Backbone:
């Protein structure tokens, strides 16, 4: 996650390429974040993660009132074509707000170049 006055913390994810039957899948696990910025009035946030792969958006659950959320949420994405050197996964961490717009907490991009099949 990029650091500045409003953005801070670390996001832990795991991305694997795997074989499922005769097909290939991308397995993404959003594990946890640490030391996120407080965006709510009581000094916490309600974080969730959105990530995008090949134009498709995926989203974790919201973890309420914490700067140290734990998701350990798994996503299995079928691959309709092999990975290319240009494939990326973009992660964006948000603070969920019921009444107003969600607040940006940070973002990161992972290149999948050179990712090999996990056995």
Residues:
């Amino acid at each position: 996650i990029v650091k500045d006055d409003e953005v801070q913390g670390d996001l832990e994810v795991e991305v694997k390429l795997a074989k499922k039957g005769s097909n290939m899948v991308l397995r993404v696990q959003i594990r946890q974040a640490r030391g996120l910025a407080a965006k709510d009035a009581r000094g916490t946030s309600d974080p969730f993660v959105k990530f995008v792969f090949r134009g498709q958006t995926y989203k974790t659950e919201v973890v309420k009132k914490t700067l140290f959320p734990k998701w350990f949420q798994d996503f299995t994405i079928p691959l309709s074509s092999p990975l290319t050197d240009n494939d990326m996964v973009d992660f964006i961490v948000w603070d969920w707000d019921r009444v107003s717009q969600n607040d940006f907490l940070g973002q990161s991009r992972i290149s999948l170049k050179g990712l090999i099949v996990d056995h």
